[in-house]
Amino acid sequence: MTARSDLIRKRAIVRGTVQGVGYRVSAQAEANRLGVFGTVRNLYDGSVETEAEGEAAAVEAYVDWLHSGPSWAKVTAVDVIDVQPKGETTFRIR
Hints:
alpha+beta, Alpha-Beta Plaits, five-stranded mixed beta sheet, 2 helices, globular
């Protein structure tokens, strides 16, 4: 996929009980289900950072999912900003 004007990309920091509960694997599965590309990774402070790129409706659905995550996670906050699309073609756990 090349960077196109109809693509959006968002970066989110997810806080709460989000490490050690399968959050990244579940985020990757949700991104794949929605056709969203990007990355997800654990941060040293116990939060999870993710970037998601794709059609606006799919990215917004992914961001909505971040607020709940898998059933065993306890999300307390999600901070989201817009970033420049990179033209990624996969969704990777880093």
